[in-house]
Specification:
eight-stranded parallel beta barrel, alpha/beta, about 270 residues, single chain, TIM Barrel, 8 strands
């Protein structure tokens, strides 16, 4: 898969996973947290821990969609001097053996320029882009500029999104569709939403893209429950918290237990 062009790496990974009957494990880390060398170690070790896709977060001063754990990691990384260019340099210098999606808010992208951001992300080895606060149709010029870089633009869909809007978002997403599992911000949660199954089923009638579910997944058991419904499981705050406490080694060790739980769980037909 590493020989595929950047814009085909995500699709290639999902194809491999589907052929193997495996649920994708998608892990988020904040670039530069708790230190650049820990982010680099995570990127290098992700594949061996069973991670299938990494979301590399660009720190931002006002991450309104994120809960306290990721907010704190973002502020700490910024205080230490991390920037959007620095995040891309990290990826370039520590290439992962799995696809990496650059996860950012819009302001850092605008500061660099959307076309340059997309071009530089591709050059650094990214396999996709996700902009949390750029809704479909909000700014077609920015979307075109990002698309000119050739990387898939992954979209978010929420439980409160009306069905017709869900369909439009699904049609405009590339790589995979990121389903927010619950209302509110990111963060660890004791429960998985009971309405998740019907929502995933409804989205499957709208798109052939893989559906990855995130927000609030904090245990291996929760990941397995979600993985029985969706194509992928996205874990952020629980990974970032372990990065804070024990660096990449602790986060990757825990993700191995999540991978084992996903592989042991029954898959949907």
């Amino acid at each position: 898969m590493s020989d595929l062009p950047p814009d085909e790496r995500l699709a290639g990974r999902w194809t491999e996973l589907r052929a193997a009957g495996r649920t994708a494990l998608v892990a988020y880390v904040t670039a530069g947290h708790p230190a650049p060398e820990e982010t680099a170690a995570f990127l290098r070790g992700a594949a061996d821990a069973g991670v299938d896709v990494v979301e590399l977060g660009v720190p931002f001063s006002d991450p309104v969609a994120d809960g306290p754990v990721i907010q704190a990691s973002s502020h700490a990384a910024l205080d230490a001097g991390m920037t959007v260019r620095g995040a891309l340099r990290l990826l370039e210098q520590a290439p992962a053996r799995v696809p990496v999606v650059i996860f950012s808010y819009l302001n850092p992208v605008l500061a660099l320029g959307p076309e340059r951001f997309a071009r530089d992300a591709r050059g650094a080895g990214a396999a996709g882009i996700l902009i949390t606060d750029l809704p479909v149709g909000a700014d077609d010029a920015i979307e075109r500029a990002l698309g000119a870089g050739g990387l898939p633009l992954v979209r978010l869909v929420a439980p409160t999104t009306p069905p017709e809007r869900q369909r439009r978002v699904a049609e405009r997403s590339r790589g995979f569709l990121y389903l927010v599992s619950r209302l509110g911000v990111t963060g660890e949660s004791p429960d998985v939403s009971r309405g998740l199954g019907p929502l995933v089923a409804a989205l499957r009638t709208m798109t052939a893209l893989p559906i990855a579910v995130g927000f609030g997944i904090s245990t291996a058991q929760q990941a397995a429950a979600v993985g029985a419904l969706a194509d992928g499981v996205v874990i952020g705050s629980a990974v970032v918290a372990r990065m804070e406490r024990g660096g990449a080694a602790a986060a990757l060790a825990w993700l191995r237990t999540v991978r084992a739980a996903l592989d042991a769980a029954p898959r949907r037909a």
